[in-house]
Structure formats: structure tokens, C-alpha cells
Design a protein that fits this description.
single chain, 473 residues, mainly alpha, globular
């Protein structure tokens, strides 16, 4: 019996050797190469024995070798500057119309009233600029609430953005009454909201996160350049001519998206899983690393209810951003126009415009600074913005700050906090949220600033009216 069990060293395995003995004898029979595959010296792959098995081994070895050679090839480490510039222009153009409508709001509501009222009376518009803010943000809020749950039909959405933006400029330019002008503001708001929620989702398909900085900087630049160009052009031509000249903005947005921007090669999650599962010894993450900077990781195929279940996990990003925008726009649209100084060479209306300029400069600088300063604790920004709200509210009532320049610096600080909250929130999402959920997370989080702005618009109107009824200090 012993002679049978020891024949060629195989039959003893059937007699029930220990696990260690079995592994030792297997290693004596199967010769592995340096990649961990059975080598040509293995008896199992000699002659005609187990031919199918050996063929599969050879295929696997070739696939692994091909993959390693691809990884050794020089990869594109940086996205092309042209594409970063395209994202900057997209951010600029997307928010440009929104800024123009808010810049024009104060002039429309003022109805040419004198800047110097009686000494004991506050100068106030009959209606707060918060009314125009609501017309400019509520349509955007609706879009941001709905769009994340629908497929990212990027080209169709971009066409709609350009058409709505153009219609907004034309309607306001040709407005013969307030309702037509408000219809134009609504079109602009829809364009801005749809553009932001769409392009933030699109950013998730780019591995190079500099696109977030480029986009955020562009949106900050919209406030700065938008207010300056509108005001400057309006000094040399009529409002109608100014708004028609701004139709170049949606045209530039289309050019930057369809001509300048490198397009990602979007793949569905199911396609990626099918491809990677057919490759032995290659994990999905290994396969993903073979994409360059302009290639996406996966496009979301989650259902409506799956996305809905993801929403609560985003509250830690959304609540601080919502609070920052709530405090910020309550200051800008409800209180800033009531913070007035008696300056001979600077009217109240001009003071308000300088507040807007300082605010937009702050937003532009901070939204462009993500590569220099990163802030993960965004709730700190909400706390600091809340302090700003208290300062502006008390200043509007009691007027205790002695100099206009101090208030101007506070407005600049307010803008810095708002821009920092925006760019750092989306930077955190790109670094902390799983790749397959980033498309939805980016889009859904954009809802938070719209909610904050909408709430501030509703509250700004009664706050503005209450302070206007108080005697002037």
C-alpha cells in the first residue's frame, strides 16, 4: 500500500496529507514564474495535458503584460491649459447674466428718486432689491432641485442654457413694463441654475481637480467683470443697447464648451464593471488609473430612490454653505443699501455700487485661491459670516461706524468668506465623496446656496421695510 501511495508522489495526496504537505507537493509540481503564473516548466502545461487551462493562463499573462506596459507609458499629468481656460469662461458666462440683473435691480427700483432726503428720514426704495433677488433665484432653485435626479444630457442642457440666457437679455432690453422685465430675469435665472447644476456634474468626470478652481474662479469673475462691464457700457449707451451687446456672452459660452473644452469619454458604471470583471488580476481601481485627466471615472446609473438615499450624507457640506449664502445675501439685498454715509462727493446710490464692487472683488479672489488656501472646516466660514450679519444689521440701525472705508472693507471680507465657502465645499466633495457618487453630489449640493439665497430674499423684504420706518440716526 505504501508503494502505491508513493508512486510519483501524487497518490499520497489522496491518503489525506496535511494542508501544509499538500501545498508543498503542489509547489513541487507547479512551477510559478515571477508574475505568479504557471511557467512552461510546469508538467500540467506540457504535452497535450489540460491544454484549455494552459491557454487561459497564457492569455492572462499577455493581458497583465500589456497593462503593465500601458502604465509605464508617460501619462498626461495635467489637463491642457485650453480646457482650464474653457472652464473659467464657462463659469464666467454662466453667472454673468445673473450678476447683470442684480446690478440693474437697484436702478430699476429707485425710479430716479433723489439721493438726499430730509435729514431725519432714511432714503429707502419702496421695494427692497430682495424682490428682484427672488425673481432671480427662485427659478434657479427649482431647476437645482429637479435636475440632479435626471440623466446628464449635457449637449441638450447646454443648448437650453444658451437659449434661455439669450432670451433673458432680449426680454429685459425690450421690456415696456415690469412684468416683461421680470420674465427676462426669470429666463436668466433658469439659464444660470441649469448651467451651474449641469457643469458641476460634468466636472466630476475630470480627474484633474484644477477644473474646480478654474470654474469657481470664473463664477467669481462674473460678479467682478459683470458689474463693471454693465455699468461701464451703460455710461455710453442706452440700457437696451447695453443688454443687446451682452448677447456675446452666451455665444462665448457655447464656443468655450463645444470648441475649446476637451471632452471626457463618459462610460456607464455597468460598462466599466463588465470590462474590468473580464480582466483577471485587475481590480476596477487599477483599470480606472489608466484614464488620463480628461477621462471620467464612471457615469452614474443610480435610480431616483438610490440618489435620494445619498442626499442625507451631503448635509455636512450643504448646511454650512447654505448658512453662508443666507447671511451673505441678507446683508447684500436687505441691509447694504441702508448703510449710508453723508459724503458730498459720493451719493447713496454710488455708495451701494461700491459695496457691490468690493463684494465681487472678495468673491473673485477667494474663489480663485483654492490652490493656495484650503479650508475643510467650512462651518467656521458660516460662523464668521453670521458675525458680519450682526455688524451690518446694527450699523444699518445705529450707524456707529465713523468711516465709509471701514464698511467697504467689511463688505470685501464678506465676499472673501462667501467665495471661500463655495470653492472649498466643492473641493471637499471631490476629495471625500466616492467617485461613483460625485456627479450627483456636485449637482445636489448646488441646491444649498439657492436655498440660502431664497430664504434671505424673503426675509430681506420685511427687514428692509422695518428699518426704513425707523428714524435716521
Amino acid at each position: 500500500m505504501a508503494s502505491i501511495n508513493n508512486k510519483k508522489g501524487y497518490s499520497s495526496l489522496a491518503a489525506g496529507p496535511s494542508r501544509e504537505e499538500g501545498i508543498r507537493r503542489y509547489e513541487q509540481v507547479i512551477h510559478l514564474d515571477k508574475e505568479g503564473f504557471p511557467s512552461s516548466e510546469t508538467p500540467l502545461c506540457s504535452g497535450n495535458r489540460l491544454t484549455k487551462y494552459c491557454e487561459e493562463v497564457e492569455k492572462s499573462k499577455k493581458m497583465v503584460k500589456h497593462s503593465s506596459e500601458e502604465k509605464q507609458e508617460p501619462q498626461k499629468e495635467d489637463i491642457r491649459f485650453q480646457s482650464l481656460l474653457a472652464f473659467w469662461i464657462l463659469g464666467l458666462c454662466n453667472n454673468y447674466g445673473y450678476v447683470v440683473m442684480l446690478t440693474a435691480a437697484h436702478d430699476i427700483l429707485s425710479h430716479g428718486d433723489d439721493d438726499k432726503p430730509a435729514n431725519n428720514v432714511r432714503q429707502c426704495n419702496t421695494l427692497s432689491t430682495g424682490a428682484i433677488l427672488l425673481a432671480d433665484i427662485i427659478p434657479s432653485l427649482v431647476i437645482k432641485l429637479i435636475a440632479p435626479f435626471f440623466p446628464l444630457a449635457i449637449h441638450f442642457r447646454m443648448v437650453m442654457v444658451l437659449l434661455l440666457s439669450s432670451a433673458g437679455f432680449i426680454l429685459v432690453a425690450e421690456a415696456t413694463n415690469e412684468w416683461i422685465a421680470i420674465a427676462g430675469v426669470i429666463c436668466t435665472a433658469l439659464a444660470s441654475g441649469l448651467g451651474e447644476v449641469t457643469l458641476l456634474s460634468y466636472i466630476a468626470f475630470y480627474k484633474n481637480k484644477n477644473v474646480i478652481s478654474a470654474w469657481s474662479s470664473g463664477t467669481g469673475g462674473a460678479g467682478f467683470f459683470g458689474s463693471f462691464t454693465y455699468t461701464g457700457l451703460n455710461n455710453f449707451m442706452s440700457r437696451t443697447a447695453t443688454l443687446y451687446s451682452l448677447l456675446v456672452v452666451p455665444a462665448l459660452m457655447g464656443y468655450s464648451f463645444w470648441v475649446m473644452l476637451e471632452k471626457p469619454n463618459i462610460k456607464l458604471q455597468s460598462d466599466v464593471v463588465e470590462e474590468t470583471s473580464s480582466k483577471p488580476n485587475l481590480s476596477q481601481s487599477d483599470d480606472m488609473n489608466n484614464y488620463n485627466d480628461v477621462a471620467p471615472l464612471t457615469a452614474s446609473t443610480e435610480t431616483f430612490f438610490q440618489k435620494l438615499k445619498t442626499s442625507p450624507s451631503l448635509l455636512k457640506y450643504m448646511i454650512p454653505l447654505c448658512l453662508v449664502y443666507f447671511f451673505e445675501y441678507l446683508i447684500n439685498q436687505g441691509l447694504a443699501e441702508l448703510v449710508q454715509f453723508d459724503i458730498d462727493w459720493l451719493s447713496y446710490k454710488e455708495q451701494y455700487k461700491w459695496y457691490q464692487v468690493a463684494y465681487q472683488i472678495g468673491v473673485f479672489v477667494s474663489r480663485s485661491s483654492i490652490n493656495l488656501v484650503k479650508i475643510n472646516k467650512t462651518w467656521v466660514l458660516a460662523f464668521l459670516q453670521g458675525i458680519n450679519l450682526i455688524l451690518f444689521a446694527t450699523q444699518a440701525v445705529y450707524a456707529y461706524l465713523p468711516y465709509f472705508v471701514i464698511t467697504l472693507l467689511l463688505v470685501l471680507w464678506e465676499g472673501l468668506l462667501g467665495g471661500a465657502a463655495y470653492v472649498n465645499t466643492y473641493n471637499r466633495i471631490s476629495n471625500e465623496v466616492p467617485i461613483e457618487k460625485q456627479e450627483f453630489s456636485m449637482a445636489f449640493t448646488s441646491l444649498s446656496d439657492a436655498i440660502g439665497i431664497t430664504l434671505s430674499g424673503f426675509i430681506a423684504i420685511p427687514v428692509h421695510n422695518f428699518i426704513c420706518q425707523l428714524p435716521k440716526y
